[in-house]
Design brief:
7-stranded antiparallel β-sheet; two-stranded antiparallel sheet; single chain; alpha+beta; about 200 residues
Length: about 200
């Protein structure tokens, strides 16, 4: 029987695109997180973690000291027909990476003042807000930030909130999103992952 980590690793290996993570300047722990697939099983996006394991913000004492960054890689796809020819698959854009990063950060957030029973309602509202923000990357919520990808400066859209930060940009045939807390986004660099074993 395969372990969860083996299943995750196989999913990452099936992807028809390169994965990205933080570059070698980051020396802390790395791990595979989750992948997203289309109905036909094609891997479309996934995320890898760096630093502390993210926890729900209000449930862990001292989470302000949490230091983590999660990098999301999204295959850059134009609008295309489904495999059976009966429909159309949405294009993926930088907004797709921004949305996945924003919703990923929310999954590890829960305001301390919020009643447990109200969390789902709060999460729905915040998720809708994250979607709207991701759809307006040129809006006032975002600023421009240049970060290295494989050593080459790349423009990113960046925003901060009380829960952490989110950024998104494009590199070759993928879009890169990231979110985190406790680590400054301004000092990050990204690089293509050559060995997924470093994340096992």
């Amino acid at each position: 029987m395969k372990t969860t980590s083996q299943v995750e690793a196989e999913g990452f290996l099936r992807a028809p695109f390169a994965w990205y993570g933080l570059d070698e300047a980051f020396t802390g722990p790395r791990r595979l997180m989750q992948i997203g697939t289309a109905a036909d099983g094609t891997v479309q996006h996934g995320s890898v973690g760096h630093g502390d394991e993210p926890s729900i913000k209000s449930e862990t004492a001292g989470t302000e000291k949490e230091r983590f960054a999660v990098v999301v890689t999204v295959a850059a796809n134009p609008v295309r027909r489904t495999g059976d020819g009966t429909g159309v698959l949405d294009a993926t854009t930088v907004s797709s990476a921004a949305w996945l990063a924003g919703s990923g950060l929310l999954a590890h957030t829960w305001p301390a003042s919020l009643d447990h029973a109200l969390r789902d309602h709060w999460l729905d509202q915040q998720t809708e807000t994250a979607f709207e923000l991701a759809d307006d990357l040129d809006g006032p919520a975002w600023t421009a930030l240049s970060l290295p990808v494989d050593g080459v400066p790349v423009p990113f859209h960046y925003r901060e909130s009380e829960f952490g930060w989110v950024l998104a940009g494009s590199a070759g045939d993928v879009h890169i999103g990231a979110y985190g807390r406790g680590m400054s986004a301004y000092g990050l660099g990204f690089a293509q992952i050559k060995d997924l074993g470093a994340y096992a």
